[in-house]
Amino acid sequence: MQMTPAKIKLLNAALKIVRTNGYEATSVDELCRDAGVTKGAFFHHFKSKEDLAVAAAGYWNEVTGKLFATAPYHDYEDPLDQLIAYIDFRATLLDGRSIPEATCLLGTMVQETYESNPAIRVACCGGITGHAETIAEIIRAAKARHAPKAAWSAESLALHTQAVIQGGFILAKAKDDLALARDSILHLRRYVELLFHHAKED
Amino acid sequence: MQMTPAKIKLLNAALKIVRTNGYEATSVDELCRDAGVTKGAFFHHFKSKEDLAVAAAGYWNEVTGKLFATAPYHDYEDPLDQLIAYIDFRATLLDGRSIPEATCLLGTMVQETYESNPAIRVACCGGITGHAETIAEIIRAAKARHAPKAAWSAESLALHTQAVIQGGFILAKAKDDLALARDSILHLRRYVELLFHHAKED
DNA sequence: GACAATATACCGACTGGTTGGTACGTATAT
DNA sequence: ATATACGTACCAACCAGTCGGTATATTGTC
To answer: How far is B114 from A36, CA to CA, in rounded Å?
Structure first.
């Protein structure tokens, strides 16, 4: 998708401001000010504020999709190693970042809009489940190799990884400390290890 | 704290509407309409909308505090059984409820307000960590009895339980299905079992 | 126990600023 | 000559919050 400078600047502003203040508290004027464009430009590219949010979710998926596609966890041969490395990678994504920079646009937006803005909810759902599916693939391979008889499903565990990460962000926001998100990711890592360690014993 | 009818009605309206639409999207007028009182009553009892949010967080802690204090998980003798029963109890709290009814006011509010409304953030933090502390006590006892040498801390695991629950709510909102929250709680249950099962082996 | 004084609980019209969105103009590229 | 990409001025609706008012309890005084 080829994008004009004003559109990209508006999307980047949305990523930044919405993650900081949420969707409802973000005004179109503030978005325009931050992007350095006018309202005319805004409504030329997006037919409404809701439309911008949906586009921002898509843009977020593009940006983070590339980040994960080129991340080092793919380099391991054993899918279980890949999974553990993915979890560690999620932890390193917190390093040196402020809370708004570390948190997820989709989780932030869907919390506010799930009842009132179906279009945004669907866009956020697509992004989260889409990413979870890439992790589910890794888990499927790990399960096939190391725990073929395990009772849990790869899809469910993949979604659980996302729940832990999102929940960690909420605690981090509440306590104003990303260390809480890191701690929860560490528990997640231990869970996965125990899960496969346990399966190997049988 | 003795409360006048209008105040209680406003707080109950806040619990309902904020969990549905979020803090920013909830207007004072809507709150008054739902509570069946006027704006005069609102600003008589609360000096601002932010003040209402802080009071609502306190009210939430009161209501849920009683719920957990009288919950059946306390009846077990073994603290590990209590912990597992607590997790199961959290799962049953999802039964027959709509998403707004099942979700946590504090997690919803802090997501939107952590940067812009410090007073609300602090109130949410207090509620979450306060509840986590009651769980940490149970975990401390369980650890002392069953896993005294374990590497993880009771406080950290207690916070992790809250992160999983909060994260489950986000996935549930995204997919419009509370089953996702239930699934994550089930993974949490398994994690705790593995954690203690593993410790006993050593 | 009568009466005034004061405080509390609530009402509803109003205000000034902000909101998302529109109408219309212009510059540039094809 | 037409479409795209903006800019500027503007608007009605809505927002949180105010203000002067009333009704009812509570308290102090004799």
So the answer is: 26
Q: pLDDT of B124-150, one tens digit each?
A: 999 999 999 999 999 999 999 999 999
Amino acid A5: pLDDT: 80
Q: What is the DSSP letter of A148?
A: T
Query: Which burial class, exposed, middle or buried, applies to A95 when counting CB atoms under 10 A from its CB (0-12, 13-18, 19+)?
Result: exposed
Rounded to whole angstroms, the Cα distance separating A140 from A155 reads 8
B35 touches chain A (CB under 8 A): no
Closest CA to B21 of B128, B93, B108, B124: B108
Q: Which of A20, A162, A180 sits opposite B171 (nearest CB)?
A: A162
**Touching B: A residues 151-190, CB under 8 Å:** 152, 156-157, 159-160, 162-168, 170-171, 173-176, 180-181, 183-184, 187, 190
Label residue A186 exposed, middle or buried (CB < 10 Å: 0-12, 13-18, 19+): middle
User: Measured CA to C1', what is the nucleotide nearest A35?
Assistant: D6
Instruction: Report the SS3 class of residue A200.
Output: helix
